[in-house]
Write a structure and sequence with these properties.
With 86 residues, the protein is α+β, with helices and mostly antiparallel strands. The protein has two helices and three strands; from the N terminus they run βαββα. It has one domain (2-67): Alpha-Beta Plaits, CATH 3.30.70.
Length: 86
Amino acid sequence: MQRIYEPANLMEAEMLLSMLASEGINAHLAGRDLLGGMGELPAMGLLGMTVDNDQAEYARRLIAEYTSALPVLGDEPENYAGELLC
């Protein structure tokens, strides 16, 4: 098993786990149960995603593509105003 990524939070971790699973990669999230100790434990580095050695490179590439993705311009609905006025 190789540690391939440290997600920023549990939401990102769950989304990435689902993405990797959809690509046939069995990933494990270490540190999920430590989040309840925030305040007593350091805030950084608690979460870590691990995968089998033979899937590590592919998983890293998928995560790199995810983290470098940009929104698709022009994909907004027609009634999208572009800014929120409160």
